[in-house]
Design brief:
187 residues; mainly beta; 11% helix; 30% strand; globular
């Protein structure tokens, strides 16, 4: 995998770029002036990142992901991640048939739902999952593969299904490992 150089990242005009950031040269970045990349974050091949997106420290976005921040935004806290093929939407058309849909139609004829998404610290979202507008994935949650998340979660839960439901608690052992890891990074 080839990553953009620091000079290339700076030339793109991101709102903010931290230290040791890796962005694949095969990723598609739209509206970089609205995108913040935290220290040690990584965006892999064939991802699309657009609109208002804030990525924390040590965040990984695996290949083939979509983070469509739109106007309201997607906010990913430290140590969170998206596995292969995850799609995160901060806005969505009205599919009821009461309005027109798609970006070729002016807002006057549409009714989009627009709401920020927060992906908390240590949240991992499994492969091919989808997150809808307005969802707050609370700290420590893990989301199983192919899960549809249309409602906010409670901290430290494991969620799966369509729609997502809490199936059990998630262990917090990783918090101790985080402290050790960060201590090691300071050396």
């Amino acid at each position: 995998m080839a990553y953009l150089t620091r000079e290339q990242l700076d030339a793109m005009g991101f709102k903010a770029v931290g230290e040791n950031v890796k962005v694949s040269d095969k990723a598609s970045i739209y509206n970089p002036d609205q995108i913040e990349l935290g220290d040690f974050s990584r965006i892999d091949d064939f991802c699309v990142i657009s609109g208002r997106v804030a990525i924390g420290k040590y965040v990984h976005i695996a290949p083939f992901c979509l983070a469509a921040g739109g106007e309201k935004g997607i906010f990913m806290d430290d140590f969170s991640g998206l596995a292969y093929g995850v799609q995160v939407f901060s806005q969505s058309d009205d599919y009821s048939g009461r309005t027109l849909t798609n970006p070729t139609v002016s807002d006057k004829f549409k009714s989009e739902r627009k709401a920020a998404i927060r992906i908390g610290r240590h949240v991992i979202i499994g492969a091919s999952s989808m997150v809808f507008p307005g969802v707050d994935l609370a700290e420590g949650c893990s989301v199983g593969a192919m899960t549809l998340v249309n409602k906010s979660t409670q901290p430290w839960g494991i969620y799966a299904g369509n729609p997502a439901r809490r199936i059990k608690d998630r262990k917090k052992d990783l918090l101790e490992l985080e402290a050790q890891f960060l201590k090691e990074q300071q050396k």
